[in-house]
Design goal:
heterodimer, A: 14 helices, B: alpha+beta, 7-stranded mixed β-sheet, 5-stranded antiparallel β-sheet, disordered N terminus, disordered C terminus
């Protein structure tokens, strides 16, 4: 089956250009961020570009099939992703105290990243089926989606990868909100949420994760640990002032005051070097990308497309917002990559897959 | 027909959320980058920029020929910057274990610097070895806050030689830091604590520079932003001649005592020796507690400069003082003679002459040449202690000579007044008998006696002994020139000096002279031996020899003391002989070629 030429014409070029701009900025920023590494800084760039090319292939594959066709097969995707996550817990590589990666032919993958778009498609399918029968979902209606969310959530938090876990959980909750629930269900969900957060705090969170949250509340509580990092990140961003220190001229990250400045704290590099003006432009690019994603959902051919597009956009929105707030010390330090910008192949592939679905849905919006 | 899939209301919420998000992010950005940007910029600078002191090399000390006696060499010093320590016990214990330093020592050092900002690096160990350096570098990751700096370290290429003259430098201590004198210093600085190093501290110390360096989160230097170069200290050019010094040092090998060689015409100190000595290099690397107690508790007192601080009875060398005064006053003349039978009965006891059989009839010349005690007992009694004191005082023996070394001791030259003041007792004539031959209450240092020798050699004129000739800045400009400073100018009758000088010449050059065996080829050395009872210990006599040469036109004065050495003639005079031979190069001059050259001049 070949792609209809009209579909190509209907590709969302705005979304593509916006995404490319973000990725381009990301690569330039990564060059600066990794320039301080004593060796192999080109390695990071090459790997990132390679992941991007793989991502383009994945987009092409996604575009080739109607999103509805993919959706019907989504349970296979879901179980495959879940299998990989379980595999991580069994044979995963340990790095930085966490077991998040598996090594396949010398390439390390982070399956929790793949779970993000997969879960969106999987849940969208379930929710769409339910919505076709019943317009407003009750407790019974959401039990399944919640269960299918919590299984990977707990497995991922156990790695531990609190950041990805949070993204998955919040994304599916927001998707539930999007399709609409009974008012009583919202109330019950709220109560359960409060109760669950106590349990999570007591049982699930590791001491260092609690420390992060403490240090968020009081930045000086842990001056040598996470508080220190949060403070250094804040100083880096703040020291950018109006116009920034200039490209490649940031000092905080180069001198390694900020850990993970090429991954989770990547925004500190951008904020330091480009200042207020650059950062605002950067925010506008992101917000417009997200807005475009919402538009795709609005203009989708059917409700299924809307739910998928909305879910994918939610992932990107949450990651962007939490990541940037974290760098500016308005959110606790949790490991969440900045879409398009953070170094990391799995993360980039996951984001590009989301973009693939958005394009797929927008391309097929005039289908009859 | 296209259907509207999801409730339109939700999209309105989405737009609202996006607007709120944009507003929140922008406001926070505005707060951090615009409102607090300047402060954050300052914090980021502070974070990465460290001001490091670049220690100025201390001035070099050179001998009269420009040979280096003290200089600086690079030393690897280990520092801890308290601010950069993330885990206190990890860094301190890790370092203590790695380099085998006492943990308490490290804590002490950190405590000394506790008044300084935490970004101030505290020196923990000086002069770490290459092995230790490697260990630290390998374990750098586990030792945040630890850094190595290359700094100039004092180096004394000749070790123990000249230790008392050069002195030593050592780390400034907490008490010194509190004094006004050292208000410009900071912990870890090295200061001159002894000898020339101390005396000329203000000149030798340079002006430290400053280096602004960028450091990473581990405190590692990434690059240097700018540097204010240090200014090296000024160089001391000494009057000391390394060759002469070396000869005296060699002669003193295995002996205790002190010696001063100077030019009587200027006061320039050519050599100054004190034994036993210490190695000043040990102090420069931060002396260990063990080494320090070994040196400071040593019963032979290696830290005492015997040449300027060791007071001994001068023995027969002091006879010159009595002779000068007696001749000046006409109490004796060259014809006055006394009969020596080996003893001098006075009161209830008999004061012995060193020569048991006696010297027979002795005049002033033979009295000096053969050092007849009985002759000087008579002279002394006739003079009385106060007139001996008067002469000694005029020569400057009762005070400090003013040599440019710290801690010089005054001499003790008794008088009736002195005794009354000190002991509230009258003077007994019997004491005068002892004093006239340099025993009893007379206590002088080798440097006092070199002045006595110079006094005779110069016929009444002495100059302040000076070790340093000039101070030259690193750029070669003369900072200070030390011109000869006249100390005494005593006019005595011409004959007085002629008689005394002939006597001293005879000591070395006439058969029967007490130093006859030490006469020097081709040159007339004049001298006076002394064998002083070390009354308090009784372990043996101190051997003295004072001398000047050439007898006709003296350019060298010497004073040599060998503690518990025995006879001056056999122990100390050979040192003077060796020095004279070297200075006047008599051995070389006697070789045909050299002799020829000299004749042609």
């Amino acid at each position: 089956m070949r792609i209809d030429k009209r579909r190509l014409y209907h590709l969302d070029w705005f979304l593509i250009c916006n995404g490319l701009a973000l990725f381009g900025i990301g690569i330039l920023n990564l060059v600066s961020a990794t320039s301080s590494f004593y060796s192999g800084s080109y390695n990071f760039i090459i790997k990132q570009l390679a992941a991007f090319l793989v991502g383009l292939v994945i987009i092409a594959i996604i575009l080739r099939f109607d999103y509805r066709v993919i959706t019907y097969q989504s349970k296979w995707l879901y179980w495959s992703a879940l299998f990989l996550i379980v595999l991580v817990l069994v044979v995963g590589m340990i790095a930085g105290g966490a077991r998040r990666w598996i090594n396949i032919f010398g390439i390390s993958l982070q399956p929790s990243e793949f779970m993000k778009p997969v879960l969106v498609v999987f849940l969208a399918n379930i929710l769409y089926q339910k919505k076709k029968e019943n317009m407003v979902l009750g407790l019974k209606g959401i039990a399944g989606p919640i269960l299918w969310t919590l299984i990977p959530f707990f497995l991922i938090v156990k790695q531990p990868d609190l950041g990805t876990g949070i993204i998955i959980l919040f994304t599916s909750l927001i998707m539930l909100w999007f399709v609409g629930l009974k008012k009583s269900t919202y109330a019950i969900l709220g109560c359960v949420g409060v109760a669950a957060s106590f349990i999570v705090w007591k049982i699930l969170l590791k001491p260092y994760q609690k420390m992060r949250i403490f240090s968020f509340i009081n930045i000086d509580a842990d001056p040598s640990g996470f508080g220190y990092h949060a403070k250094q990140a804040m100083i880096a961003v703040g020291s950018g002032k109006f116009l920034g220190k200039g490209y490649m001229a940031g000092t905080q990250h180069k001198l390694q005051f900020i850990p993970e400045h090429h991954t989770d704290f990547i925004f500190t590099v951008f904020g330091e070097e480009w200042g207020f003006v650059g950062s605002i432009i950067f925010f506008i690019l992101f917000i417009s990308f997200i807005y475009r994603g919402i538009k795709v959902a609005m203009n989708a051919h059917d409700e299924l497309g809307s739910i998928i597009a909305f879910g994918m956009t939610t992932i990107i929105y949450l990651q962007f917002t939490i990541n940037v707030l974290m760098a500016m010390h308005l959110a606790p330090v949790v490991g969440i990559p900045l879409p398009f910008v953070s170094y990391g192949g799995s993360s980039l592939l996951s984001v590009l897959a989301s973009v693939g679905f958005l394009l797929n849905i927008s391309m097929r919006r005039y289908m009859f | 027909m296209k259907q509207q899939a999801a409730p339109i209301m939700k999209y309105k919420w989405c737009k609202l959320v996006l607007i709120i998000t944009m507003v929140v992010l922008s406001l926070r950005l505005w707060d951090l980058q615009i409102m607090r940007g300047t402060e954050m910029r300052r914090l980021s600078e502070q974070n990465r920029i460290r001001v490091k002191k670049v220690i100025a090399p201390r001035g070099v000390i050179l001998d009269t020929q420009g040979r280096v006696l003290a200089d600086t060499r690079p030393s690897f010093n280990l520092y801890i910057t308290p601010e950069d320590i993330t885990d206190f016990s990890q860094t301190v214990d890790g370092l203590a274990k790695l380099l085998d330093i006492d943990r308490e020592d490290i804590l002490d050092k950190l405590k000394t610097a506790s008044g300084f900002p935490p970004s101030f690096p505290v020196k923990i160990k000086s002069d770490v070895t290459k092995d230790e350096l490697a260990k630290v570098e390998v374990n750098r990751v586990y030792l945040p806050g630890v850094s190595i700096q290359i700094e100039p370290k004092r180096n004394y290429p000749y070790g123990k030689m000249m230790a008392h003259m050069l002195g030593y430098v050592s780390e400034i201590n907490g008490d010194e830091l509190k004094t006004k004198e050292y208000k410009d210093y900071s912990p870890g600085d090295y200061i001159g604590k002894y000898g020339l190093e101390r005396k000329y501290e203000a000149f030798l110390r340079g002006v430290d520079g400053e280096k602004r360096v960028e450091v990473d989160a581990m405190g590692r230097e990434v690059r240097t932003l700018d540097i204010v170069e240090p200014t090296a200290g000024n160089n001391l050019h000494l009057n000391v001649n390394l060759d002469t010094q070396q000869i005296v040092e060699n002669e003193f090998e295995g002996k205790k005592g002190g010696a001063v060689i100077l030019d009587p015409k200027t006061g320039s100190v050519i050599a100054l020796v004190s034994r036993p000595a210490f190695d000043p290099n040990k102090f420069a690397s931060g002396i260990t507690k063990k080494d320090w107690s070994a040196i400071s508790m040593d019963p032979s007192h290696p830290l005492q400069n015997r040449a300027t601080q060791g007071r001994y009875p001068p023995g027969s060398t002091f006879k010159m003082v009595a002779a000068l005064k007696a001749l000046e006053l006409g109490i004796v003349n060259k014809h006055t003679s006394y009969n020596c039978r080996g003893g001098f009965p006075f009161g209830k006891r008999v004061f012995k002459c060193w020569k048991k059989g006696g010297h027979g009839s002795v005049g002033v010349h033979r009295g000096i040449v053969e050092s007849c005690d009985v002759y000087f007992y008579n002279v002394g009694l006739k003079l009385g202690v106060d007139r001996i004191h008067e002469m000694a005082d005029a020569i400057g023996l009762g005070k400090q000579t003013g040599i440019d070394l710290p801690g010089e001791k005054k001499g003790v030259v008794p008088s009736t007044e002195w005794k009354m003041k000190t002991f509230k007792e009258p003077w007994y004539e019997g004491e005068t008998v002892s004093v006239s031959i340099g025993q009893g209450a007379v206590w002088l240092t080798p440097i006092h006696l070199v002045q006595l020798s110079a006094f005779v050699a110069n016929e009444g004129v002495t100059f302040k002994p000076q070790i340093v000739r000039k101070i030259i800045s690193p750029e070669g400009k003369t900072v200070k020139m030390f011109e000869p400073v006249m100390e005494t100018n005593v006019r005595l009758k011409k004959d007085v000096f002629r008689i005394v000088k002939e006597g001293m010449k005879g000591v070395v050059n006439e058969p029967g002279g007490t130093a006859y065996s030490n006469r020097v080829q081709n040159i007339n050395m004049s001298g006076k031996t002394g064998t002083a009872q070390a009354s308090s210990t009784g372990k043996g006599d101190h051997a003295w020899f004072i001398a000047y040469a050439p007898a006709e036109d003296p350019t060298v004065s010497m004073s040599i003391l060998v503690e518990m050495g025995g006879h001056g003639g056999s122990q100390s005079a050979p040192v003077a002989k060796a020095v004279a031979e070297n200075i006047f190069k008599v051995n070389e001059a006697s070789s045909p070629r050299e002799a020829n050259l000299n004749e042609n001049r």
